[in-house]
Specification:
The chain contains 6 helices and 6 strands. A 4-stranded mixed beta sheet has the order 1-5-6-4. Strands 2-3 form a two-stranded antiparallel sheet. Helix 2 packs across helix 5. The termini are far apart. About 20% of the residues have low confidence.
Amino acid sequence: MGEQVLLKIMAVILSVLCTVAMLESSERATGSNRLSGPHADVTYLEKKIHTIINQERKKKGLPVLLWDESLHSIARKYSQAMVQRNSFSHNDPEGRTFCDRYKAAGFECRIKAGDTICLGAENISQDNLNNTEDKIAESVVKRWMISKGHRENILTPYFKRQGIGVALAEDGKVYVTEDFC
């Protein structure tokens, strides 16, 4: 009798777990992307921001920026560092810039622009996990597009590649870094 009760309990638990898994799968399939707590699909968010940036460039007749894995890695590491240090700045607490981060990663960006050499550029943003991932991506790009310097980086015609890196803080803040070359 005790063994049958145990089997019935295990069957109920298994049934509940399968139902939860099916609901989560259904939620993902519908593209809900609703956030709860300090969780989000950072890869989805990075790619969504990349797509919206390219939509902005297309509006201005500019070529799309290619996704660059090296720049993505540099950007994500910097977003994670800002989370870990609870800082939000283009310069880290030691004063290092995106150029220093490129160099530390073995990445070189040298674009001849007229009489000067451009070494790349960086945009950063901070948001909150209080909306869908799609809305967060739209909000980040919208803020960049109304900021003169960030907008210029996005619309610089000689940039060909970008990497987006997102990191989430426990307090629900979203840190975004966009690196260009």
